[in-house]
Amino acid sequence: MLRGVEGKVVLVSGAASGIGAAHVSVFASAGVKVVAGDVQIEKGQSVVANVNIAGGEAIFCELDVTSLAAWESAVAQARETYGRLDFLVNNAGIYMPGSVLEESPESWQRMIDVNQTGVLYGMKAALPALLDAGGGAIVNISSLYGIIGSPGSISYHATKGAVKMMTKGAALEHVKDNIRVNSIHPGQIDTPIIANLTPEADAAIKASIPMGRLGRPEEIAEVSLFLCSDMASYITGAEMRVDGGWCAT
Ligand SMILES: NC(=O)c1ccc[n+]([C@@H]2O[C@H](COP(=O)([O-])OP(=O)(O)OC[C@H]3O[C@@H](n4cnc5c(N)ncnc54)[C@H](O)[C@@H]3O)[C@@H](O)[C@H]2O)c1
Questions:
Q1: Residue to probe by mutation, ligand 1, list 11, 13, 19, most atoms within 8 Å of CB
Q2: 98 by DSSP, 3-state: which?
Q3: Does pTM top 0.85 for this prediction?
């Protein structure tokens, strides 16, 4: 059992699917109360219902991460329901391919709004509650593509690189407040976001991962839980690569 998580309260964005949904079940299994936010209402409610049936404690709230007011409402729901907020996982994200020459202003702006501004707003809304709680932890889900480059994902690289650096800035802003802020950089994880890969591309990616397989969403959520726990008490501003060895090549 990880020290310092049982009885705490987490807000997870993008909780209706993939890595976010895995956070809801992994955190709830560790005795953390979960506020699960997403724009996909029915799917999010279903994730929460399954966790509650399994004995966890979770509520769903409608959350569009591009709206600061929606974030403030989600934090208020955490405080009203569970009396506090200790952890934030900024997980919601979208992926749209496109090179520098292909990228449209609309697609670029949408990626910035969701992947980058959404993370800023999440931290902005949650930090006052974490300060009130006497401390806490924030985990920002970036990507391996926030560390390494590739052709054809220019706006995704821009936003995920920004998340990595916003994490370090926020970590230093709150290092004296008992609040730790870290980023996770998943490699290729088996979730709906990669469903548009062709079988050939899927095989090529798998071939480039030393472990020879995609990651499971739970393998990201478990690192997140560790980063929130007291076992990670000396870790802040760090970028955790969870990539099956991809970056070691
Ligand atoms: N799957 C991977 O290989 C991989 C790799 C690196 C990083 N990531 C990152 O992990 C995070 C989770 O992605 P995933 O793989 O679970 O994908 P996913 O598509 O399964 O889940 C993303 C979730 O975010 C939600 N979302 C999208 N826009 C939103 C908005 N405006 N407000 C609130 N919620 C919104 C979606 O409804 C969905 O539930 C993302 O930030 C993604 O960039 C994923």
A1: 19
A2: strand
A3: yes
